[in-house]
User: Fold Gluconate transporter from Duganella radicis.
Amino acid sequence: MTITTPLAALFGVTPAAWALIAVALAVGSLTLLIAWAKVQPLLAFVAAALIAALLLGVPLENIPKSIDKGIGDLLGSLIVIVCLGAVFGKLIADSGAAQRIASYLIGVFGSARMPVALTLTGFVAGIPLYYNVGFVLLVPLVFSLVYQSGRPAVALAIPLLAGLSIAHGFLPPHPSPTALVAQFHADMGRTLFYGLIVAVPTLIIAGPVFAMTLKRIEAAPAPMFRAGLRDESELPGVFNSFATALLPVWLLAAATGASMLPIADPALKSLVAFLANPMIVMLLALLVAVFTLGVARGQKLPVLMAGAQDALRDIAPILLVIAGAGALKQVLVDSGVSAQLGTQLGALPVPPLVLGWIVATLIRICLGSATVAGLTAAGIVAPVVQGSGIDPSLMVLAIGAGSLMCSHVNDSGFWMFKEYFGLSLKDTFRSWTLMETLVGVFGLIFVLILSAFLG
Assistant:
């Protein structure tokens, strides 16, 4: 489809060139509104969607319909999953299961292999915990180990935070990869399986291997960040903690495997499809966690639900970002520019997975937010996925890798790391920014290797 708008003729450019200009102006406006004017992301996305619609000649009466449809379609399939994931992660944190996982792994590996233990801690705990929750919960553990062992704080923290970051960017049920799965109509279980394959070697390189180069960086953590750990007697058991925290992974893996079996009985096939739905998986995981980590340990249900209220309040800003991204995506689709961009981008001498990674990286550098970068990039490259035959699960991972690239001064994670560890800007770039860049680069490399094996 070719974009036809009087503005193209007015400025003397071809419709194809005007489509690119219009999208660039819309994304540029989004960048300025969020990064410079500090506009709330939902409002910035809606404003960018309006700008794109007007520049692309969408009839005025259709613009509100496109925005409503985009928000409704994307949120409608995600809101329950994301909210259940938030409540589940909050319960893992509040119950002490995450701390138990950390202390057990550190005890098993011993002080000599402490970076390896912290790498596994960050990754395992990062699957159910949202990034900011995991950061605030587990960083005091790092400080405790620093004071006990005398090891450099940054060299111990980076493996743990690399695990958290990779889980946040690559693996459902985290909001960004879950939303990308919905945008690309990918399979949730397959994306999780591929994500684990890509995540492990990426984590080894960006975590314990890279941390070996950071031993000379000296941290000066503020005293307020050094406390927060529970007494061991208050924590749930090791098996209970691991089994419950990883339950969504086990359930998704089992459901995905069962759905691939040749099932002749229609009733059984329908049951398997029902149980394989990510919403049902997360609901079952949450119900089990409420019992095993709460009720079975003598906690009252109203107390547990108080934590759920906090989790839903914390997840609201992310849901608004997802909603805004849906609005911009739908305007691009309804205007016809999405299909046209797909044709133009698909003709570039760049593999589609690399293209998705590049777009996400550029937006990440401009905006700072990994979630915004991933969702915005998905709206731009979605037609490429449809026209190229690329496995959508791999595109989710490629964009996820790009969305983690080059964290710098416009990313809240950059400042959290700097302030918690009392680092200079130079040392923060040397440690945090470089770690995130390694995650993005090697994440893409291993996605491409996996793509080659899958054929």
